[in-house]
Amino acid sequence: MSKYLAGGRRLKSIIGGSTGNLVEWYDWYVYSAFTLYFAPSFFPSDDPTAQLLSAAAVFAVGFVVRPLGAWIMGVYADRNGRKSGLTLSVTLMCLGSLMIAVAPTHAQVGALSPLILLAARLLQGLSVGGEYGASATYLSEMAGRERRGFFSSFQYVTLICGQLLALCVLLVLQSILPPADLESWGWRIPFGIGGLLAIAVFYIRRGLMETESFQNVKATASMGSSGWILFRHYPRQAFLVIALTAGGTLAFYAYSTYMQKFLVNTSGFSREAATEITAAALFVFMLLQPLAGWLSDRIGRRPLLIAFGTCGALFTYPIFRLLEAADNSFTAFLLALGALVIVTGYTAINAVVKAELFPAHIRALGVALPYALANALFGGTAEYVALWFKSIDLERGFYWYVTAMIALSLLVYLRMPETRKASEIAED
Question: Counting Cβ atoms within 10 Å, is residue 91 exposed (0-12), middle (13-18) or buried (19+)?
Answer without folding.
Answer: middle
